[in-house]
Amino acid sequence: MSTEAIDNELDKASTIIRTAWGVGGLVALVIGVLLLVWPGKTADVVAAIIAIYAIVTGLVYLGLGIFAKRYGVWVRIGHLVLGALFIVGGVIALANLRATTLVLAAVLGITIGILWIIEGVTALTLLRGVPSKVWVIIYAVITIIAGVILLFSPIYGALALWWLLGISLVVMGAIQIVRALRFSAERL
Question: Quick check: pTM over 0.85?
Answer without folding.
Answer: no
